[in-house]
Amino acid sequence: MDTLTASRREVIADDVVVERDVMVTMRDGIRLATDIYQPAKDGKVIEARLPAILERTPYGKTERSRSEIEVGMSTPMKRHEVASYFVRAGYTVVYQDCRGRYNSEGEFSKYISEAADGYDTARWLVEQPWSNGRFGTMGLSYAAHTQAALACLNPPGLACMVMDSGGFSNAYQCGIRQGGAFELKQATWAYNQAIGEGDELARAAIEAEDIKAWFSVMPWSEGVSPVRWMPEYESYLLDQWRSGTFDESWRRVGLYMEGFYDTFPEVPIVLMSSWYDAYVRSTLDNFRGLSGKKSRPLQLIMGPWLHGNRNTTFAGDTSFGAAAPLGGNVVESWLAFRRNWFDRWLKGVENGVSQEPAVRTFVMGGGSGIRNEDGHLDHGGRWIEAADWPLPGTEYRNFYIHQNSSLSTDEPKADTGPFVYDYDPKNPVPTIGGSLTSGQPIFEGGGFDQREGEKFYGSKHPGLPLSARADVLSFETEVLAEDVAVVGPIIVELYVSSDAPDTDFTAKLVDVYPPSVDYPTGYALNITDGIIRCRYRKSWEKPEAIVAGEVFKVTIEPFATANLFAQGHRIRLDISSSNFPKYDVNPNTYAPEGRGRTTQIARNSVFCDAARPSAIRLPIVRGEAMMALKPFAK
């Protein structure tokens, strides 16, 4: 594979040299800009065949990665600083701009080109005179997606991976769509990234758009969107938005890692995410789907943070304490952790990596409940280790909703009427935190008291709890007499009906704090949530309109979680039909996805009688299993 030599050599230090903008030619002739960091002596490259570390990114191979920050740092490290660390440990480091981004040629089409381009880059890499034929991959978010994509094609030389908060198991169910609904973080991502691309006029035009105003006139269309100034961004965004049916377009390599589990390379992999990240399901599905082969060592790390913020102590308005950061608690540092991983699997160094626990996760909760000095709720938590996920000894219990708005393990016995409410697409329930990323300046993720506020888009009554809305159904347990550890996957099964041809149902798990001095009305902390678009209630492949008045069952799969509901708290389940702007609003008309210009109010019903018992199934770890949750000692 050709490499054009319009590159330039730059001395980073006496012992590190980089060759910038080496143009690597892909199978279709497009050239991708690539930086190669190598060890040197007195500023001259040392001729040696070494293992390599590869990261492919759309965010600029010379730009700071926000993920490269350690505990105590005020700003992330520069790319050359990270590369130099690994070069001095005996590696060649390769950073590459994805197709159509920064110095690479071609047109950017989000996610779709990464498999073939990654494979072609790997084939080029192992043929270079500085390569010993083996390489590992690393990277956060999109740079984890690029890893998963190239690995699905089994490239030559791939020996290990570190996938941080990304790598689509199935982008239809996590990352682009969820439960049939469209994740609007894709719209904010397109807007934010398009600002940095294009010519000066296009950038100025996008910056002049009022993105908040645009979110009030959805769905967007060709030439009628804030990213119309960058047509390639508008094109892929509208394509994602309108692709509501799970067809072959979703099974493409780069979007559908679970379709390649059987043939996925049997190489050691670290899978990391966090409970308020947008890729919880992808990470856990990938762990389960790739488990079971001794030739493929896996490690799973799940923290309490927002997307990629592995060394913070909080998410949203919720603090998890000094134990939360990865660095200093689970590992010495993120740099040192990766070096140990690469040393073990690229160099064969017996450094103890093989003996580390398969699962390390942070169980949120158990804090003081006071407002700390930063103004955050002290929710607390601790790291634990386990041999597998879900945790061995997990007990799954149904908590049923009842007509008196209670939530309990008692099944409904009486023949009671359903809960009925009107869902108006013009007045959706505002998103108050959650497992979100890339949402600025429209929404932000994390844990918050579930009440409207000026900082939350769509809030019309600041200070009013969401549970006060007529279109939000809230069900609470009695005050807990003991701690309840909910750790694992969650399923909500509802018996419902609607007079509209299509509508959504949402579910949210909430940890309800009792009133306190700092929080006189208590604090309703969102733990996880999910959604189902009813046209897909029977099949993701074959949507079907609702028959008015027909009672049917829907299944909602919120992201898994790990939270200790403390003694004195309550467990709450909120049910509604919207969560905007996390998900796009269902117009209730059965219009083609992303094209509905008219709306109708849906009268929706949720049943709770003996014959139609709606419930949330919680994974509970207690008794002997709870005692086995040993704090992780690094």
Automatic annotation (TrEMBL):
One Pfam family recorded for the sequence: Peptidase_S15
Keyword field contains Hydrolase: yes
Example of a GO MF term: hydrolase activity
Protein name: CocE/NonD family hydrolase
InterPro entries: AB_hydrolase_fold, CocE/Ser_esterase, Galactose-bd-like_sf, Xaa-Pro-like_dom, Xaa-Pro_dipept_C, Xaa-Pro_dipeptidyl-ppase/CocE
Listed PANTHER family: COCE_NOND FAMILY, PUTATIVE (AFU_ORTHOLOGUE AFUA_7G00600)-RELATED, PEPTIDASE S9 PROLYL OLIGOPEPTIDASE
Domain Xaa-Pro dipeptidyl-peptidase C-terminal positions: 339-617
Signal peptide start and end residues: none
Organism: Neorhizobium phenanthreniclasticum
Coiled coil region boundaries: none
Keyword terms of this UniProt record: Hydrolase
